[in-house]
Amino acid sequence: MTEEMKNDLPTVHWFPGHMAKARRLITENLKLVDVVIELLDARIPYSSANPMLLELIGEKPRVVALNKSDLADPATTKAWIDLYKKQQVQAVSIDAMTGVGMKTLVKMAEELARVKTEKLVSRGANARAARVMILGIPNVGKSSLINRLAGASVTRTADKPGVTKSKQWIKIGKNLDLLDTPGILWPKFEDMTVGLKLAFTGAINDEAYDMEKVMSVFLETMAADYPERLIERYKLIGELPKTSAEILEMIGKKRGFLLKGGIIDHEKGRRIIINEFRAGKLGLISLDQPNAQQVH
């Protein structure tokens, strides 16, 4: 995203009432767990990382899991994993839908928890399973991850944010007890591009922002960073136009998003394009590039 684009960004905020309740719930239950799994979207590891969580977690051991890795640029995801390791943070890329990375994630969580569980045994307590809490923003895939780990559909899943709204314990094999909690966003995005990327990926409810303005930025971002993906997906001929409106017109004509009289149905076009991005139909795309300042 160019500096010129950043100077004229639409504002995106979303902080429903249950988010404040979720923060209290997490704070109250952190003392019950040994390890925190922070679940991020591999396409936007920085933008999907809630800076509030580090404050809540404190010194509690954590594992960073980059979910939806099947939708992200693998080279960029690897760079993020390497950066976390340099920061002494355990990190793994996963795909909760197919199970990729599950064994590594469980092993990391169990190893980090062992310090706590062995200390309890040394003090005379009975041996117990490691207790883990999964934390992350809405729609990052927590329910899908838990279902995959548990091997059964134990939580409600939906492709919209805010589905999980209460805590529940789930047994994961013999060595892991897992506490699910609601996703939490933060009240204000200091970096406006963070809110936009959360909107792009569906972490923020589509009804909570101006779709026309947000999609304008999305198309400009794609044209700047991944122009070949738009050209290939929508079979466009020649170079992309300079403005998002012209790009939308070109795609609309090619795909036949037309109203009566041959007028382009812009609303339908925007919805289809963003849904195809979220489904991975535009290719493997990473919107956050790693740098040392971006590791929370």
UniProtKB/TrEMBL annotation:
Chain positions recorded as GTP binding sites: N67, K68, S69, D70, N139, V140, G141, K142, S143, S144, G183
Organism: Propionispira arboris
An example Gene Ontology molecular-function term: GTP binding
Cellular component, GO annotation: cytoplasm
UniProtKB keywords: Cytoplasm, GTP-binding, Nucleotide-binding
KW Cytoplasm (keyword) present: yes
Keyword Cytoplasm among record annotations: yes
Name of the protein in its database record: Ribosome biogenesis GTPase A
Classification of source organism: Bacteria, Bacillati, Bacillota, Negativicutes, Selenomonadales
